[in-house]
């Protein structure tokens, strides 16, 4: 039977983290015989850590805020499942994606969510523009790179995440870029999304940072920063 790991990065999520981790536990318990949830508390200054203590999740805590990319990377490296997924702390994506993802991962190495549902027009446009840009700059052939739910075979996760360096929201871009360079097979799966109205993501501010990171990834690759990824080719 499949052993599934779910990694959840969390930063100042005291309002929802207990309820959502319990919901994830119930889903995994109802669908898989073996599972684990790893929550990486990314230096929260609120009551997130105390709320997590009431759950069965494994908790990793950073002393200071390191960024979503750093939190996801830490959880993915620690995860022991045959199939390793990550998603956002507010659970905006249907967890049914995990069931579909496990089935797909018997044939491919990585599954990426492709969002549909209630999503603001300005964010739809920003996502479309970003995907076109990274295809032009990095050649990533994935339709929704920034969708916040993805799954990996254990082998793929072990090869990709230790090489990653981006700590910000552009970490997904780096992950998929390196995955393509290593020759891993990637499949997209549609997933319903419910937009969080109080999201801390600022499309303009964070978008500019992400664009800067795209350039950083390209230049880093050309300069040999990721040269170790060549040894991971299958």
- CATH topology: the name is Spore Coat Polysaccharide Biosynthesis Protein SpsA, Chain A
Please bin the fraction of helical residues. Answer: 40-55%
Strand content: 15-25%
Class derived from helix and strand content: alpha/beta
**Order of the strands making up the biggest sheet:** 3-2-1-4-6-5-7
User: What's the number of helices?
Assistant: 8
First and last CA, distance: 25 Å
CATH class: Alpha Beta
Give the secondary structure arrangement, pairings included.
Elements: E1 3-10, H1 17-31, E2 34-41, H2 48-52, E3 58-61, H3 68-78, E4 83-86, H4 96-104, E5 110-118, H5 121-138, E6 150-153, H6 154-160, H7 171-182, E7 186-194, H8 203-222
Parallel strand pairs: 1-2, 1-4, 2-3, 5-7
Antiparallel strand pairs: 4-6, 5-6
Helix pairs in contact: 5-8
Could you describe the 3D structure shown?
- By secondary structure, this protein is α/β, with parallel strands linked by helices.
- It has one domain (3-232): Alpha-Beta Complex (Spore Coat Polysaccharide Biosynthesis Protein SpsA, Chain A).
- Helix content is 41%, strand content 20%.
- It is built from eight helices and seven strands; from the N terminus they run E-H-E-H-E-H-E-H-E-H-E-H-H-E-H.
- A seven-stranded mixed sheet has the order 3-2-1-4-6-5-7, with helices on both faces.
- Helix 1 (17-31) links the parallel strand 1 and strand 2.
- The longest helix has 20 residues, at 203-222.
- It is globular and about 45 Å long.
- It starts with a strand and ends in a 12-residue tail after the last helix.
